[in-house]
């Protein structure tokens, strides 16, 4: 009796997923994770954060002097571009 229960349990447990689309979405990495794969760190800067603003990803970098550099991700070209430089933008009060 236990043998039959184990066999049925194994057969049902190893079956195909009835909702493959949902399973694919669970395993699919979010867009911001894929965008980071193409993000190059500007020379002399350290990574300070990444932000999601209205389907746009913004990355922040700081250098050793406290200067700040912002980069924006273009969803169409899948490329990052340097958009803004702030002198002493990373310095705290």
Features:
3 helices, single chain, 93 residues, 4-stranded antiparallel sheet, alpha+beta
Distance between the termini: 73 Å
Q: What Rg, in angstroms, do the CA atoms define? A: 23 Å
Q: Return the string of H and E elements.
A: HHHEEEE
How confident overall, as mean pLDDT? 81
Please count the helical segments.
Answer: 3
The tally of beta strands, per DSSP, is: 4
Give a structural overview.
The structure is a single chain. The protein is of the alpha+beta class. The chain has a domain at about 30-93. The chain has 3 helices and 4 strands. The chain has a 4-stranded antiparallel beta sheet, with no helix packed on it. Strand 1 (about 45-55) and strand 2 (about 55-65) form a beta hairpin. It is elongated. The N and C termini lie far apart (about 75 Å). The model has no long low-confidence stretch (mean pLDDT about 80).
Provide a compact summary of the structure.
The chain is of the alpha+beta class. The chain contains three helices and four strands. A hairpin with a 4-residue loop joins β3 and β4 (79-86).
């Amino acid at each position: 009796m236990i043998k039959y229960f184990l066999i049925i349990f194994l057969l049902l447990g190893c079956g195909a997923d009835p909702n493959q689309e949902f399973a694919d979405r669970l395993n699919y990495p979010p867009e911001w994770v894929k965008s980071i794969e193409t993000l190059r760190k500007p020379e002399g800067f350290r990574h300070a954060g990444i932000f999601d603003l209205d389907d746009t990803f913004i990355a922040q970098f700081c250098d050793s002097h406290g200067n700040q550099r912002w980069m924006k991700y273009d969803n169409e070209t899948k490329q990052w571009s340097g958009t803004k430089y702030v002198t002493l933008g990373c310095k705290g009060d």
